[in-house]
Amino acid sequence: MNLAFDTIAAPTSAVAGAPTSTLQVSRKTVYLDAIVGGTYQVQLSGDPANPPAATSWANEGAALTASGSLEVTKPAAWVRVNVTAYASGTPVARLVAERAR
Prior knowledge:
Elements: E1 3-8, E2 20-21, E3 25-33, E4 37-45, E5 57-59, E6 68-71, E7 78-88, E8 92-99
Antiparallel strand pairs: 1-8, 2-7, 3-6, 3-8, 4-5, 4-7
């Protein structure tokens, strides 16, 4: 198994982070660490354009309010973290995925 690791933008205010391409990987999991106070929603876009259309984003799974992980179960060209509420802390988001062959 050939794994890929990438840091994803995890904003420290109530905004959406920059998108990270997932076109070259499969079996994706997003890990969020150091969540002190906030609500972090993983979002996906199937739009292959760079950047994807603003209307193309959809929530994946439940929002995280504590450190944890979320397996991405839907096909996606892009992934991002959208902060819907922020109180404190400096969260770190990572994408772990299997490289497409």
